[in-house]
Design goal:
alpha/beta; Undecaprenyl pyrophosphate synthetase; 6-stranded parallel sheet; 9 helices; 45% helix; UPP_synth-like_CS; EC 2.5.1.-; magnesium; UPP_synth-like_sf; UPP_synth-like
Length: 253
Amino acid sequence: MELPGFLYGYYERRLVRSLSPESIPGHIGVMVDGNRRWARQFNAPTSQGHRAGADKIHEFLGWCRELGVRVVTLYMLSTDNLSRSTEELRELTEIIAETLDRLDDDPNVSVHAMGAPEILPDHLAERLARLTAKPSPSEPLHVNVAVGYGGRREIVDAVRELLRDALARGEDIAELAERLDVEDISRFLYTAGQPDPDLVIRTSGEQRLSGFLMWQSAYSEFYFCEALWPAFRRIDFLRALRDYAGRQRRFGA
């Protein structure tokens, strides 16, 4: 049930006041799901849903900056998504490319691309290649964009790079196998050097990871929201943060 405007604003402010700075997750992963279903609700083209979802990304990042989130990882295009129809994939990759350009031009964020650019259309792979982390004296929000991303592929790529590194240094592979530990592989993940996500949000009511940050999310908290991504509101985000703040994290204990 939708609240009247003045009650909505009051409830939103109340939610904000209930969140202490210490309760805000440092790293949030987001599975931006539901663009196509949102478009179908209005008998609109699928591309309109993807454009609405792209606009929501920029709105969402504004909320994150306002509340003090330091790192956001956006699951924008999986390796499985590349099997969609040629026309939809063309439109989707063009919208993603435009979104990346907007992020790269934003002085308030630093951007890191993660995924397999070699399997992407050339125009999108080129944009990803140009993305660099931009230092800022204002300690910007850091945004990872997962495009052409698959969780299993990331782990395989990490192990492959680990082995190449060991061979380049003349290390014996049998000795490496004996001493190999979690940190050895973590150093070669797409998110190497970054904290693991504290909270992973998925919209659209789906309750599965779909390969998103499989390694990094081992001890993350998960929040599944019924709202489709283009309809995801600030109040939905605040509810996710309130839910997270009320949990007792055990990190496998």
